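Case study.
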Amino acid sequence: MNVIEINKLTKYYGQARGIIDVSFNVGEGEIFGFIGPNGAGKSTTIRTLLALIYPTSGSATIFGKDCIRYAPEIARDVGYLPSEVFYYERMKVIDLLQYAASFYKKDCSKRIFELAEIMDLDLKKRIDDLSFGNKKKVGIVQGLLHDPRLIILDEPTSGLDPLMQQKFFDLLLEENQKGATILLSSHVLSEVQRLCSRVAIIKDGQIIKLEKISDLTENNYKKFKIEMKEDIRREYFEMAGINNLALEGSKVSFLFKGNINLILKKLAYVEIENIWIEEPSLEEVFIHYYEKEA
Amino acid sequence: MNIFRYELKAYRRSIFIWACSMTLLAVLYIFLFKALGPDIESFKAFLNNMPEVVKKSFNILVDSISTLEGFYSFVFSFVVLCGAIQAMNVGTGIVSKEVREKTADFLMTKPVSRSTVMTSKLLAAITALVITNIIYLGLTIAAAIVVVNTFNLKIFFLISLTMFFVQLMFLALGIMISVIASKIKSVISVSLSTVFGFYIIGSLGSFLGEENVRYFSPFRYFDPVYIIQHGAYETSFAVIGLVLIIAALAASYLLYQKKDIHAV
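After joint prediction, the assembly is written out as follows.
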């Protein structure tokens, strides 16, 4: 069964493009990644799912119900963590969490204390005294306190230190073990790779690829930057797996996908001054996808 | 119910401050009336020499100035002005507060419909105004009874109560403005300019023709002269006021249902 089904969802802000014909499904119990650069339409999609904004055309269902028409009903089982969290500044953390809990018809106080303990959150402080990272923790507790069946996270890790990020991911995995479905948007590929089983890649408002993470990892791109001792001909790098080849005198850069030994053997035959082998940035992977599409 | 409670709690301080300042203003004038005592007749003669425009604009009722009701009408127009600003602030704040403080995401992803949110907030706002009026009416009437014991309580009460109706009109107007506007940076500048705008329109009566102007300014819907003479409100204006309130609220509900809540 699909928890989320998105069907040709389109949103224009006046003339400005939000998203165009976005379609994908998220199955029950899945951790689904939604990835793309800033401004690609991740938040627009998520905000439409949450009925914060209304689609221009197309539709989406959550738990089999139209996400706009049945928004209040759906919201009972959805936990949402926005990329930037803002709460009523003059409230104490505990008061805010209890106010949040009062919207759900169940007793959440035990879970609030559990989550605050895990996230190391001081419940007695006032919201406006909290740092950005601590506000984010309030957001996490607030999003999870009612044991939601669907957790929607929009750029969740910004502002959290690596230790907290780890705890948070463990928490998410635990929720997932208990049966929660997770939709996670991010512009950081490694973050998505760590958690998700499938991803949708969005660029300029359109889904350009739906892929299993395992496939994405197989497509393990490495970015090579090499300075040669002397100028080299372009033909030398004409081999399978090399993309985005750029030559500038003795400097060469390209993305490589495939058996890493092959390229290393090839490089062993030329005199090299310096070499960098890096994970490509998301943008670079995107550029590659984009070229393949075109 | 939880939204209502939260909202009302947030109004606590402002209710207290507004109600007390308005009461203070009115009570001060009640004392002034008492202090004038027998000199009120010479005061009346002085006022009679003032130009008609000034008298009209400031709600100075020369004929009844020697009674508390008439004297009170003068200061009361300023009290209503304050009340209107308070109501406009509350109304404009209802929706724009959440947008400005970026808490709309929090509220709107909870299992409540937008109309429930609006209704809870509206009821909390009306309750805040009712409490303000109860404090104001209670203290002012008590002061009037203690300081000046000879006056027409019914008229005094009827005049004072008009503040609540004017407030309801500005509340509804404020809500509608905040729903239409995508983002309001400063509530106070919007509410002050709107309220003073209507106040000025209302006082232009002597230039533009009394009857023309009255329909356009909520401040002129309840004429103290008429109330003092008849001991009642003018039905036509009461009805128009009610219709305007309902229309503004209905429009606000409809627009709010369809409004995009934008990311920060």
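Observations recorded in class. The longest helix of chain A spans residues 162-177. The mean pLDDT of chain A is 87. We will return to this complex in the next lecture.
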